[in-house]
């Protein structure tokens, strides 16, 4: 069976990208292959992670240019992994139901415009919730508004700071959920299902 060709979009350090690379190396991600990493930030460490693992890395100059690269590389699935740019409706419709995102909360809590990175964990702590987590969802025109694919809860502990909570959500939820979801979707796409 042919593997689904995956592009990962990143803006920063690329810890979720690393979780996907590790999943591919361990055989957990076996139906998909990361063939491209793209970033809107030329200084993103994630680009170095890609190069260190023999994956083509590009800096995104425009959505049109990126879509052209996607066509050239035969990209079938797009994974947003800490990508801090809102994609246009035209870009999303070009890959309808083939763009997924990992968000560091249990959607519908602490999501939408302006809710990214540490802000999400700050809001969770301010609100006083006892449980947070991560969500993998399809991307549509509404920030964090697409259909939920998978969620995993993480307990908030006494004395948590936004930074300690962020780290635990990554380790216990994001790095577990995202590779699993990418494998499930890659397997369906490789079989010709949507």
UniProtKB/TrEMBL annotation:
It comes from the Bacteria. Catalyzes the transfer of a formyl group from 10-formyltetrahydrofolate to 5-phospho-ribosyl-glycinamide (GAR), producing 5-phospho-ribosyl-N-formylglycinamide (FGAR) and tetrahydrofolate. The keyword Phosphoprotein does not apply. Belongs to the GART family. InterPro entries: Formyl_transf_N, Formyl_transf_N_sf, GART. Signal peptide: none annotated. Pfam families: Formyl_trans_N. One of its GO terms (cellular component) is cytosol. This is Phosphoribosylglycinamide formyltransferase. It comes from Emergencia timonensis. The record marks 144 as: Raises pKa of active site His.
């Amino acid at each position: 069976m042919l593997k689904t060709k995956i592009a990962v979009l990143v803006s920063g350090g690329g810890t979720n990208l690393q979780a996907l690379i590790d999943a591919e190396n361990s055989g957990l991600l076996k139906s998909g292959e990361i063939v491209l990493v793209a970033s809107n930030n030329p200084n993103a460490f994630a680009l170095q992670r890609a190069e260190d693992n023999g994956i083509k890395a590009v800096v995104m100059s425009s959505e049109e240019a990126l879509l052209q690269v996607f066509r050239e590389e035969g990209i079938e699935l797009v994974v947003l992994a800490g990508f801090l740019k809102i994609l246009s409706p035209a870009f999303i419709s070009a890959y309808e139901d083939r763009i997924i995102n990992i968000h560091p909360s249990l959607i519908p809590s602490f999501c939408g415009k302006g809710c990214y990175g540490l802000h999400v964990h700050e809001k969770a702590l301010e609100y006083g919730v006892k449980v947070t987590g991560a969500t993998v969802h399809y991307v549509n025109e509404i920030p964090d508004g697409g259909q939920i694919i998978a969620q995993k809860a993480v307990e908030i502990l006494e004395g948590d700071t936004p930074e300690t909570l962020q780290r635990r959500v990554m380790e216990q939820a994001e790095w577990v959920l995202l590779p699993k979801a990418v494998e499930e979707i890659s397997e369906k796409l490789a079989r010709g299902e949507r």
